[in-house]
C-alpha cells in the first residue's frame, strides 16, 4: 500500500490541469489513467468530430493554442496532439493502463484500488469525465430486432451502418452533426427532436463563442443561477465546428432533405410513436435564440461596439411541415438503424462511497463532494461555471478545486509542502 496525499483519477485535459496545479502547490500526488493520456478523445468519439470552440479559445493552465489558425476548429487528432503536448509540459506523476476497481472511504482517508495496487490517500480528485457511458432512454429496449441500435458512443463513421434509412434520436450538437454526416453518405435520415438549444455559429461577423465570452455568459458561476439542476442539464447547443464556420441547425437539416419528427415517446409493437409537440418545442428554441441575440445587441450598444461589428439581424424561425409524422413502422424497411444521440453519463461503478443522488450523479457543491470530505469532482457540465464543459473551462475549475484540496490537506495536516 502506498500512502500519498492525493490521487487524481483520469489523465484527460481536466486531470492534467489538476496535476499541474497540485505540482505548483507542492502537493504530492499520482495520476491514474485506465488507458492513454487523452484516452476518451483518442478512442471514444466519431472520426469527423471537431471541437465546438474555436482554436483561440483552446487553453489549459499555463498552455494555449499557438498555431496559425485561431478561428479554426480542432479535429480529434489535433485535440489529442494538444493534450499530448500539455502532458509533456506538465510531466505529471502518471501511471497509464491502470484501471481503478474501487474507491472506498476508510475512516478519514480513501483507499484507491487499481490493478491490484492500493493507494491510501487523504484526498481524491475524480477527473474521469462525464461521457463514459451512453445515456439510453427506456424506450430503446423496445426496438424490434429487425432494426439495428447504435449509440453515439459506438458510432465512428457512416460506413459502419447498414445501408438504408436511419432514425437519429436527439437534436443537440451530437445528433445534428451525426445526422448531417450520415445523410451526406447517401442514407435517408429522420431526426427525432426533443428539447434543444438553437445557436448560430456566427452573429454580426463574430463567432458566437466570442459573444458569449464578451457578455459574461461563459463565466457565469454555479452559485449565480436560479435553477442549478436545470442549468446543468440544458442540452448542448446546436453547433458544429467547420472550416467555413457554417451554422448547422434544424433548418439546415431540412434544407438538405432530412425529415424532422417529434420526440420519440414509445415503441409499441414495432411502431415508433413520436410526440406531437414538435412545433412548440422548436418555437421555444427560436424564442430563446431571439432573447440571446437581443442580449448581445444590448451589450454591443452599451459597450460602443455597434460600429465595429456587422448590423443586428435575426434568423428565420424553424420550419416545420404542416403535418409532422407521428409514427413509423419499424418493420416496414424504411428505417434500418436507430442511432441514439441521447446524451452520455459518467461511470461510477467503481465508486464505493454513498455520494450519488437518485439520478446516479454525484452530489457536489461546485466540484466539492458534499457527503465525503476530501473527495472532489472535475470535468462535468457547469461544474463551477457555464464554460466548465469546454476544454478551456478546466483552467479556472482546476485552480479552484486544487486550492480547496490544498486547504483541506493543510487543515488535516496530511500534506508535505515543498
How would you describe the overall organization of this protein?
The protein is α/β, with parallel strands linked by helices and 418 residues long. It folds into two domains: 2-132 and 346-412, FAD/NAD(P)-binding domain, CATH 3.50.50; 133-340, FAD/NAD(P)-binding domain (3-Layer(bba) Sandwich). Helix content is 26%, strand content 22%. It has nine helices and 25 strands. The protein has helices spanning 13-24, 39-43, 76-90, 173-184, 208-214, 228-232, 250-255, 278-302, 393-412; strands spanning 2-9, 29-32, 59-60, 63-64, 94-95, 100-106, 109-114, 117-126, 133-134, 148-151, 165-169, 189-192, 197-198, 202-203, 206-207, 237-238, 259-261, 264-268, 271-274, 327-329, 335-340, 344-345, 364-365, 368-369, 375-377. The strands form eight sheets. Strands 1, 2, 5, 6, 7, 8 and 25 form a seven-stranded mixed sheet that branches. The chain has a five-stranded parallel sheet with strand order 10-21-11-12-17. Strands 18-19-20 form a three-stranded antiparallel sheet, with no helix packed on it. Helix 1 (13-24) packs parallel to helix 3 and helix 1 (13-24) crosses helix 9. The chain is globular. The protein starts with a strand and ends in a 6-residue tail after the last helix.
CATH class placement of the largest domain: Alpha Beta
Strand content: 15-25%
Annotated CATH homologous superfamily of the largest domain: FAD/NAD(P)-binding domain
Structural class: alpha/beta
- Round the Cα radius of gyration to an integer and report it: 23 Å
- Characterize the overall form: globular
Amino acid at each position: 500500500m502506498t500512502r500519498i496525499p492525493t490521487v487524481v483519477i483520469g489523465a484527460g485535459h481536466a486531470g492534467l490541469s489538476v496535476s499541474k496545479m497540485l505540482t505548483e502547490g507542492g502537493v504530492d500526488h499520482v495520476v491514474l489513467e485506465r488507458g492513454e493520456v487523452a484516452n476518451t478523445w483518442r478512442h471514444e468519439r466519431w472520426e469527423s468530430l471537431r471541437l465546438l470552440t474555436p482554436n483561440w479559445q483552446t487553453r489549459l493552465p499555463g498552455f494555449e493554442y499557438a498555431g496559425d489558425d485561431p478561428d479554426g476548429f480542432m479535429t480529434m487528432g489535433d485535440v489529442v496532439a494538444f493534450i499530448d503536448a500539455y502532458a509533456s509540459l506538465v510531466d505529471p506523476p502518471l501511471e497509464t493502463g491502470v484501471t481503478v476497481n474501487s474507491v472506498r472511504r476508510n475512516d478519514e482517508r480513501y483507499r484507491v484500488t487499481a490493478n491490484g495496487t492500493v493507494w491510501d490517500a487523504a484526498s481524491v480528485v475524480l477527473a474521469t469525465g462525464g461521457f463514459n457511458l451512453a445515456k439510453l432512454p427506456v424506450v430503446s429496449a423496445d426496438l424490434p430486432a429487425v432494426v439495428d441500435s447504435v449509440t453515439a458512443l459506438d458510432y465512428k463513421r457512416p460506413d459502419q451502418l447498414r445501408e438504408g434509412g436511419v432514425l437519429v434520436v436527439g437534436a443537440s450538437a451530437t445528433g445534428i452533426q451525426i445526422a448531417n454526416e450520415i445523410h451526406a453518405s447517401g442514407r435517408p435520415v429522420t431526426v427525432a427532436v426533443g428539447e434543444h438549444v438553437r445557436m448560430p455559429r456566427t452573429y454580426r461577423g463574430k463567432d458566437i463563442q466570442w459573444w458569449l465570452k464578451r457578455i459574461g455568459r461563459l463565466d457565469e458561476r454555479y452559485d449565480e443561477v436560479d435553477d442549478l439542476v436545470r442549468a446543468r442539464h440544458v442540452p448542448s447547443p446546436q453547433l458544429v465546428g467547420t472550416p467555413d464556420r457554417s451554422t448547422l441547425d434544424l433548418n439546415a437539416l431540412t434544407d438538405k432533405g432530412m425529415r424532422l419528427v417529434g420526440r420519440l415517446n414509445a415503441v409499441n409493437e414495432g411502431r415508433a410513436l413520436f410526440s406531437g409537440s414538435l412545433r412548440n418545442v422548436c418555437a421555444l428554441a427560436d424564442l430563446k435564440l431571439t432573447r440571446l441575440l437581443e442580449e448581445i445587441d444590448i451589450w454591443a450598444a452599451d459597450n460602443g461596439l455597434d460600429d465595429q461589428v456587422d448590423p443586428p439581424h435575426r434568423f428565420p424561425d424553424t420550419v416545420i411541415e404542416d403535418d409532422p409524422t407521428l409514427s413509423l413502422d419499424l418493420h416496414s424497411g424504411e428505417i434500418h438503424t436507430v442511432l441514439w444521440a441521447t446524451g452520455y453519463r459518467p461511470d461510477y461503478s467503481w465508486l464505493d462511497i454513498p455520494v450519488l443522488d437518485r439520478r446516479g450523479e454525484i452530489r457536489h457543491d461546485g466540484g466539492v463532494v458534499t457527503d465525503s470530505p476530501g473527495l472532489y469532482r472535475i470535468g462535468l457540465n457547469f461544474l463551477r461555471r457555464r464554460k466548465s464543459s469546454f476544454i478551456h473551462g478546466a483552467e479556472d475549475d482546476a485552480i479552484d478545486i486544487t486550492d480547496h484540496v490544498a486547504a483541506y490537506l493543510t487543515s488535516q495536516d496530511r500534506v508535505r509542502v515543498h
